[in-house]
Amino acid sequence: MLQFFLLAAQNLPADEQARVELWLSIFTGVLLFLIFSLLILAVLIRFIALRSTRPCRWCMEFISNKATVCPRCGKEVKPVDGPAASAKDV
Ligand SMILES: [Zn+2]
Questions:
Q1: What is the pTM of this model?
Q2: Domain span at residue 42?
């Protein structure tokens, strides 16, 4: 896509070409920043979700640390205080 814009700018005067290249590099930088910040945000949300959930000892579905009954299989589970993401703590 950048190649297309650079080709389209070939017939412009030199100072206009420099301006187009500058704006394209700014646009590319902003685009890359947005993509990477979204990726980091997704990883953070996943990490936070894993800290507040644990696998059910009966069906291995991820449930809240505070749950006393598994919403999926309906069996009783012990609530866990604090972050615990391993099956042995359930
Ligand atoms: Zn369950």
A1: 0.52
A2: 1-51
Q: What is the bridge-based pairing of β-strands 62-64 and 53-55? A: antiparallel
* 79 CA from centroid of ligand 1 (Å): 13
Q: Are residues 47 and 64 in the same domain?
A: no
pLDDT over threshold 90, residue 64? yes
Q: How close is the Cα of 83 to the center of ligand 1, in Å?
A: 18
What's the chain's average pLDDT? 87
Tell me whether residue 38 is exposed, middle or buried, using C-beta atoms within 10 angstroms of its C-beta: 0 to 12, 13 to 18, 19 or more: exposed
Residues, Cβ < 5 Å to ion ligand 1: 56, 58-59, 70, 72-73
